[in-house]
Amino acid sequence: MSEIAQGNVGRRLLFLAPVILFAVLAGYFLWGLAPGRDPRILPSALIDQPVPDFDAGPLAGIGVPGLASTDLKAGKVSLVNFFASWCIPCRAEHPLLMNLAAQGGVELYGMNYKNKPAEARAWLVELGNPYSRIGTDEPGRIGIDWGVSGVPETFIVDGEGRIRYRHWGPIDRRAMEEIIRPLIVELSR
Amino acid sequence: MIPEIGHFALILALAVALLQGSLPMIGAARGRAAWMALAEPAALLQLVFVLTAFLALMHAYVTSDFTVANVAQNSNSKLPLLYKISGTWGNHEGSMLLWILILAVFGAAVALFGSNLPAPLRARVLSVQSWIAIGFLAFSLFTSNPFARMFPPPPDGADLNPLLQDPGLAFHPPMLYLGYVGFSMAFSFAIAALIEGRVDAAWARWVRPWTLAAWCFLTGGIALGSWWAYYELGWGGWWFWDPVENVSFMPWLLGTALLHSAIVVEKRDALKTWTVLLAILTFSLSLIGTFIVRSGLLTSVHAFATDPERGVFILVLLCLTIGGSLMLFAIRAPALKGGGLFAPISRESGLVLNNLLLAVACATVFLGTMYPLFAEAFGYKATVGAPYFNLTFVPIMTPLIAIMALGPMLSWKRADLAGVLGRMKAALAAAVAATLLALYLSGGPVGPALGMGLAAWLFIGALSEWAGRIKLLRVHPSESWRRALTLPRSAHGMTLAHAGMAVAIVGIVGSASWKVEEILIMRPGDSVAVAGYDYRLEGVNRVQGPNYVSDMAQITVTRDGRPVTVQRPERRLYTVQQMPTTEAAIHTTGLADLYTAIGDPDGRGGHTVRVFYEPLVPWIWAGSILMMLGGAVSLSDRRLRIGAPRRTCPAPNTGTAAAKA
Question: Looking at chain A, which residue has its C-alpha nearest residue B604?
């Protein structure tokens, strides 16, 4: 046998490295396959918890008041939608929110997230304003308390101010009809 | 009846695979010619059985046999014929069957065209190929039977996912799988070489054409997939660093490295263990790519329906294939003999650097793709998006592209860097000119302009090398022409592929940097100006398709008052699944795409309209086609077609003898 093949533990270990790395990876895979794990779900620690305390000033020039945690405890089911004018999916869900606002049955509140007031104003003027209250969260501080990972993100809050549902990403027609509307109806009873 | 024949054929294929996986391997170890000779007819028989099964399933799709559960869940009687056919592989079970079919095709190809391979090597390669087939056939038969019946049959099928009802996506999976599975050949050769304990120039010459063919198909498959994402998703982008995209990109990166390291093995008898490892890893990544989106391990915007129950089977399969082959590598690779030496400045070194950078790039993508899983195991959720990939990937690719122009000019063993740089004057001038021109035209940041310069450097560098070989402009044109004709096809192929890469880079950098987008609500009669073009929404009409209804907009595009084109983007609602899809309208000027997509109505007579100006995107597709063409031209090289000369007297290899003893 050649010298290279003999002895030299270090060299041998080097050749073992790929299989060892793969074993580690396989360990992760095994863990990842645990039943009940759904990588799609971004869990919210806030489900069934009271909304965090906040008081967000209004968006000037739109004519609706600002939003504070007390507004969410007024006995009516509300939907809090984090949006921004720079967010393309927000545009996609906007017509659905306009629709929801027109039909009523829920307090539709907006949180203008990490967005300049002038741009948000222009955006709402262009597309229409579905919100009866808009809070501004330009630095994104309130978003952190809510655990927002990006916009759009939507929360359904029951009459006592507890978060009952979190929707990550844009609301599409199916989510609106199959999840959001039924939940609003159920919570309003 | 026919589905049962298909099912039975699949069972027979498994039986043949078991035979092919065992007897020839034992025969090769014991030197029994008859046992080894069994491999070829077995490989052909396996293809016959798998093809029978595949055609049986296709028959069920074409005739809309809804008693087959798979057909009922993924097809519909109103589906156009093309999508009934492509529906065969537009689902988990059917795509596994396609995978197995392609595996069998490659196995049969070795049996048919591998007559110049030494008998033991051929027997071992076919046996290893069959081990893979055993795993997949078992997976298909035990967990994903495509022929399962359902009773009572539904009156009509649930329809193919509307996103898949598209010509681009009808052919994307076969292309991609030809690439993925093509790498199984390099893998089988690597395992056979480890078992034999011998890797030499002849081995590399046999491996290269298979790798090259797989690489061409994978390049095409990836390009087709991103082309589809570009026009079908309506997001105006063509690459999203989504896990599904990344898992196809990683084997491409490593396969590209393998393609180049095999050259070093062939020409210089060096980098042998590394090449064997690359062959194993490339196919391992293909396997991971096939499985990861089916197992529910990672989430993606466009994945198959996942089923964690199959996950355990998949994991066992991955552990056996990848773990087993890497274990074999750990045991046997140290015995492989090292080869030729080379100086730090040489073509070998250039190719080592190429391999190093490609491997690091692949590792970067791997880490970004898997990170959400790793992070979640430690209790927190994370998503990794484009910013990570752009930030890490670009700095790795930049030096790679810079040396890509130099590499082919370096000579083997020891090269003269000063001389090579001297030949790069034209490329350098082109790079500077392209940078300045891009800077002048865009008036924007320096980064993208430098990207253009880099692409020009590569393009002109590749052409200079080719021109140098045929002594263009230095001798009479007829002499250059004669030289071009006698130049090996692989040299032409390399120039084409490298130049294609340069063209693709122009598209990638340009589209990422200078895209203009406008999203707004438009009512009929409204106009918007984007990047010098005026878009006027004429109206939106309801159109009835075979299995969908569509809102088709008519948008007139003009430039300075002169008509350019009329675009008809659609918003389709596929009635069976009640699923909307976007059909973007794209008009290409060659330098840019004018891209419009229409969204939901706002209920007040307006529609969301997205207008994108996508500069240089056509260049990405042109570059991909050039790269594939380069691969195909190289593949037609006489040397690769005929294969290596027969090894009459194998080189003495003490390591092998000792390891076998």
Answer: A95
